[in-house]
């Protein structure tokens, strides 16, 4: 994982223009929209110290996608907590309500 680079824009835009890639993510994106996302992703990284990062093949440096975390507002209708079945020691607040 790493910060975004200008060289990521073309492969990132190609991914977002592919209907198969975008099948469960919404409509395909233009190059301009994909580029704007990258700028926003990097701004979030710079501002918060976390966000969506570019992913590359370690040996070649080839861009292959992205991963990361995003701030959610209080209006989200769920709690993102994972608990192994039978693990009552680590029950979440959602389990106790």
How many H/I helical runs?
2
- The biggest beta sheet, please? 2 strands, antiparallel
Strand order of the largest sheet: 1-2
Inertia-based shape: globular
Q: How would you describe the oligomerization state of the chains in this entry?
A: single chain
Provide the gyration radius in Å.
17 Å
Say how many strands there are: 2
Structural class determined from secondary elements: alpha+beta
Average pLDDT for all residues: 82
Distance between the termini: 37 Å
Order of helices and strands: HHEE
Detailed description of the structure:
The structure is a single chain. Helices cover 27% and strands 11% of the residues. The protein has 97 residues and is α+β, with helices and mostly antiparallel strands. The chain has a domain at 6-68. A two-stranded antiparallel ribbon has the order 1-2. Helix 1 packs across helix 2 (31-48). Mean pLDDT is 82; it is low at 89-97.
